[in-house]
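Page 37, continued from 36.
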């Protein structure tokens, strides 16, 4: 098959159909003859010509059989569903019906042209040997049980019958008046659909009929299309009416004259005859026919696609010269003209990709190929991808082209290397560098080294980024180290190159050199490097450098790894930097008060020099620092609070209180100190010191009410001394006293209530009866508590502790006559067994 040239207009909208010209044997036929009609079966084609010949061809157009039927035009060929029987009629009135694989047949000559013939779809079956012919009359031929053909007239008197379509039990035909439908099963004519434009000659603009399914008929005549649906009539409405009726569900006008119709899902494929005005003369010329796909609506239609077809000799053709046949099995549409036959078929995924590539929509083409890779036959995903990459490179979108390489090239190492060298040739190695494979699939090391050298020449930051992102085994590490070293000779202080060199040394496991560079640069990754590669032995002489860089991180690292760098070693290294030594020892003390105990004496001076706010907490928490040394340092530096604490710690509370009163003059601290010590002599000293200082007296009156009897202070106040806020202080004392009294009374009430409640509970418990039966034994003699002869008199003593005794087994009462105790419980404690319950009988 050859493609039809100029078959569609150049548009951004993708066509729905593709076209090919039927060639091979068909070409030879049409060179010497002209096509007059054609019928399509799923397996083959049947072509009738103007010279009275009928050809059977395969789908590719190759001739398989030839029949000499007449010397004039073949008007119609009809096939049954099986494709085993054919009906042929010609302009000279001949009608032939015969089997392609059997000798049975029907031959008849009429005295008028027979325009159409139609076989019953199930003609192969013996009980469906029926066909109809259309000339001036619609004749039905049926073969009876005697193997003879019976003829009956279904319709006549309305002009020549130009078209017949038989589907299941329904026969539709068109004459000069309109379209009629006949039900062969009920032998009833169902409807008459009149043609709209009666001005058009029926022989020049013939009616097109097409069954969409067993009940839906599509009628095209002139520029009008109607869709008719055969429906069952309600039995209550029948009377003398046919059992079926027709409802027109859609009727609309088109722009051009209709030559043929075919269904496509819920849409219609329509072949149009087009005329256009001549530029030179005032007359219409025949234009290229159009094949449109339309969406029928109730009163209009929507155009889905439209293609103008360049068929041979289209300028000489009339509307009646074109026909549209279709193959239901494969959705193939045949456009028949006298000198050309074009096949239209739905575009597949390969055609869709072709169109996308042609429109340079490579992204969509690649996506479509990936989604339908199992169904495409003519395309390869990788080849489409390569076309896309070439297009991006040609349009200088290098970054997008490089990004697509990752997706398109996949695991093809040869293609990868070719693309890398192409990017090198156009000076765009940087673009492809970030997309190179670097996982399990890798290129040759020389490829990666080539890109690194390119970056090293022009972009230090980009070079450093690649070194960080690429695994160290992608390339020859030593070669890159040498290249970086050479560049550092020209720029020895370049921090980017130095950092990158340290990373390269790390990849090469030369951690000591990497550590030196990181420390020199004060790089944040130095601690991570030490931890990751256990470089503690290498930093023993670099502790000061680490502390200068970041004290907090350095100290945390040293303390977390005491087993690798001892406390003594760190103290030794920091001996000449006391401010750093203090930071280390302070954090060590915070973690564990006892680990650095031998350095606590040294820490006193360090706290005093660099961190006084933490000196007092240190003195409080440490149990290993010498108090005399600490007191000496604090007194030298006049640290009053620390001195007070040390004096109280050493037992010299009076001296400590004196310092608070004299040095700090802070009565609140003095009172707090006295409260902490809880020493009556200290309170007396505090009162004595404060008795001539009215502000101090006010402070004492406000705070000592709960620790010392205020009367002791009030009695010692000199008469006539003016004391600030004395009234408020006395009121507070009285209020505190009342509060204490209320608290005591409340506690007493609660205690009495609880005691009474418990006493009542105990009384109720003790008043309960105790079950005594044969299973109980005497706790003294271990015999059963009840005698075997219950008629005899016996005495049993049951204590509240539930221990039981025979009365004679109990010892005599003690010092208090009549009061007995449980021997068992009284041996443990004198308590619950002291009461008794005596049973007598």
């Amino acid at each position: 098959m050859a493609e039809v040239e100029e078959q569609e207009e150049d548009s951004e909208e993708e066509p729905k159909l593709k076209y090919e010209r039927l060639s091979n044997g068909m070409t030879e036929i049409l060179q010497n003859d002209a096509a007059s009609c054609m019928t399509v079966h799923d397996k083959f084609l049947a072509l009738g010509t103007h010279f009275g010949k009928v050809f059977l061809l395969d789908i590719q157009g190759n001739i398989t059989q030839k029949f000499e039927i007449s010397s004039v035009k073949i008007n119609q060929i009809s096939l049954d569903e099986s494709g085993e029987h054919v009906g042929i009629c010609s302009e000279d009135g001949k009608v032939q019906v015969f089997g392609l694989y059997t000798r049975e047949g029907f031959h008849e000559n009429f005295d008028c042209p027979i325009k159409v013939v139609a076989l019953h779809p199930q003609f192969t079956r013996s009980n469906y040997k029926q066909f109809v012919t259309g000339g001036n009359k619609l004749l039905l031929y049926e073969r009876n049980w005697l193997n003879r053909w019976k003829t009956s007239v279904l319709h006549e008197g309305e002009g020549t019958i130009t078209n017949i379509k038989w589907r299941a039990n329904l026969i539709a035909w068109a004459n000069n008046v309109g379209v009629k439908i006949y039900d062969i099963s009920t032998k009833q004519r169902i409807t008459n659909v009149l043609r709209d434009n009666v001005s058009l000659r029926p022989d020049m603009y013939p009616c097109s009929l097409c069954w969409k399914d067993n009940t839906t008929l599509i009628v095209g005549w002139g520029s009008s299309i109607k869709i008719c649906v055969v429906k069952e009539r309600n039995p209550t409405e029948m009377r003398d009416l046919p059992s079926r009726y027709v409802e027109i569900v859609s009727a609309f006008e088109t722009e051009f004259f209709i030559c043929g119709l075919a269904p496509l899902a819920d849409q219609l494929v329509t072949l149009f005859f087009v005329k256009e005005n001549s530029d030179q003369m005032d007359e219409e010329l025949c234009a290229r026919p159009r094949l449109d796909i339309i969406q029928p609506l109730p009163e209009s239609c929507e155009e889905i696609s439209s293609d103008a077809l360049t068929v041979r000799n289209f300028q000489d053709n009339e509307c009646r010269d074109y026909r549209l046949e279709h193959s239901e099995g494969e959705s193939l549409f045949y456009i028949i003209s006298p000198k050309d036959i074009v096949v239209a078929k739905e575009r597949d995924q390969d055609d869709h990709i072709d169109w996308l590539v042609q429109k340079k929509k490579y992204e969509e083409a690649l996506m479509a190929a990936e989604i339908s890779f199992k169904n495409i036959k003519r395309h390869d995903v990788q080849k489409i991808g390569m076309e896309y990459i070439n297009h991006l490179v040609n349009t200088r979108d290098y970054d997008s082209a490089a990004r697509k390489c990752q997706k398109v090239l996949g695991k093809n190492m040869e293609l990868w290397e070719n693309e890398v060298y192409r990017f090198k040739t156009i000076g765009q190695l940087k673009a492809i560098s970030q997309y190179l494979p670097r996982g399990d699939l890798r290129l040759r090391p020389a490829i990666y080294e080539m890109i690194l050298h390119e970056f090293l020449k022009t972009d230090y930051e980009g070079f450093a980024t690649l070194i960080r992102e690429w695994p160290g085994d992608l390339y020859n590490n030593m070669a890159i180290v040498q290249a970086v070293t050479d560049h550092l000779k020209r720029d020895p202080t370049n921090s980017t190159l130095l950092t990158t060199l340290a990373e390269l040394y790390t990849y090469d496991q030369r951690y000591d050199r990497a550590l030196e560079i990181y420390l020199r640069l004060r790089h944040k990754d130095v601690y991570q490097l030490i931890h990751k590669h256990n470089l503690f032995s290498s930093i023993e002489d670099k502790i000061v450098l680490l502390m200068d860089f970041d004290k907090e991180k350095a100290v945390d690292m040293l303390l977390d790894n005491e087993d690798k760098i001892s406390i003594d070693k760190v103290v030794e290294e920091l001996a000449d930097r006391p401010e750093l030594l203090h930071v280390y020892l302070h954090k060590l003390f915070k973690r564990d008060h006892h680990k650095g105990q031998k350095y606590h004496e040294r820490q006193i001076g360090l706290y005093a020099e660099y961190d006084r706010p933490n000196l007092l907490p240190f003195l409080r928490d440490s149990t290993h620092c010498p108090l005399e040394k600490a007191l000496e340092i604090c007194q030298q530096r006049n640290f009053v609070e620390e001195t007070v604490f040390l004096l109280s710690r050493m037992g010299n509370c009076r001296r400590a209180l004196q310092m608070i009163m004299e040095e700090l003059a802070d009565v609140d601290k003095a009172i707090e100190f006295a409260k902490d010590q809880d020493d009556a002599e200290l309170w007396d000293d505090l009162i004595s010191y404060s008795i001539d200082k009215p502000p101090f007296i006010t402070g004492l009156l406000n705070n000592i009410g709960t620790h010392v009897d205020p009367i002791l202070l009030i009695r010692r106040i000199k008469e006539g001394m003016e004391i600030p806020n004395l009234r408020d202080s006395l009121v507070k004392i009285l209020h505190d006293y009342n509060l204490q009294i209320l608290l005591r009374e409340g506690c007493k009430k609660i205690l009495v209530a609880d005691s009474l409640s418990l006493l009542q509970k105990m009384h109720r418990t003790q008043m309960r009866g105790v079950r005594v039966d044969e299973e109980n034994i005497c706790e003294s003699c271990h015999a059963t508590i009840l005698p075997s002869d219950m008629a005899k008199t016996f005495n049993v003593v049951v204590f509240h502790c539930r221990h039981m005794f025979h009365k004679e087994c109990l010892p005599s009462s003690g010092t208090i006559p009549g009061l007995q105790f449980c021997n068992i419980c009284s041996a443990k404690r004198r308590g619950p067994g002291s009461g008794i319950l005596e049973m007598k009988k």
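The radius of gyration is 59 Å. Flag for discussion at group meeting. Residues 41 and 83 are 7 Å apart (CA to CA).
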